[in-house]
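@channel sequence for tomorrow's demo:
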Amino acid sequence: AIQGQLASAGDADRYRIQAAESGSMTVVLDVPTNNTSQNFFVLQVYDASRTQLAQYRTGQDRTVTVGVPQAGAYDIVIQAEGYNSYDGNAYKLTATLAAGGAQGYESEANESATAADADPLNLGGLTRGQLASSGDTDYYQVTVNAKGILTVELDVPTNSTTNKPYRLRLFDTNGRTQLFDNNYGTGQDSTYTLELPKAGTYFLELSSYYSSALKDDTYALKSSFSAGATGGKELEINDSKAQADPISSGVKVSGGLSGYSDKDYYRLDVGAAGVLSVLLDVPASLSASDYRYQYFSLGVYDAQDKLLGVYSTSVDKTYQFGLPAAGSYYLIVGSPYYHSSDTYSITATHSVGSTAGFESEGNDSAQAPNSLSSGVAIQGQLASAGDADRYRIQAAESGSMTVVLDVP
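structure tokens (generated this afternoon):
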């Protein structure tokens, strides 16, 4: 520790410490005052290029930790809050360096939504920073290799429902198109679920909306990312096989069809052959009489675009499909004849097992029939008016064959 004193209200004491590598620096300021309502001292931290890394005002003892982004000289400045807030008694200052990289700490200047300026978001962990003044804006960048859900927990140093100084916004990969704004700020800890519509680099902006309520203390961002429609909601754009939303077995996902031509693609990856059960839950706005008009279609295809089945409905219904092997399967929801823009949901559940009881398209020729076993029912579907399903059974000897056709 070093002991110092501000000789006058205009005095500023500057201290320099050399960092041998990147990491963090913890600064302990032991002041002679103990006042929670009035600040007497200002603590500032600068790097070698005179970029301000942090600024804190206090009337009490204070401990702060800042990121040290690289080796070099760092300056700590102690000065009075103002001529009416000056204390000439001695203070003590202790600065401790810790190696290990500055990841998880804001690094000024991070004041533009560009790859060169924005700090990397510590995805999966904490990122700590500070809005040093009402004019300070902090930008963070996060790069994802697929569309999905970014969850951000914002931990702020205030706790107010009326004063909301912390504004969080999300910008697209171009750094200009706004995707989210937290309703003009928050004064409490908050969690946000943000949709990232495609792979790429996105930018988070944290700024002050009500400067008078801003507290010059540390905030924290805890973030995590999940690829696909893991938030239980369809992620546009998912209008093609390449853009399909990944879904998980047994997890309900909601979506909406924006128009007659809109199709929502979902991808389910399975590790073995088995039976796929899909519950299509149509909007509650459809009445019982709407069953005749078929507002929704559900089709299932394998990775080679082979059709496993397609159905049209306007009522809640569960459909089953045989999945002949491990791999990726695609579920497509569309508007067959009529259109509803209200929310639907699907729940796709895969059960490992035999697919012997299910038709496998295309079985519409003598060269590729499905095999039948004596006495074992098989489920099939005519996918269109021109579809023909062919089945073959092997007889070991002469006799008779009884065929039972159970139609819908």
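heads up for whoever presents: DSSP finds no helices and 28 strands in the chain.
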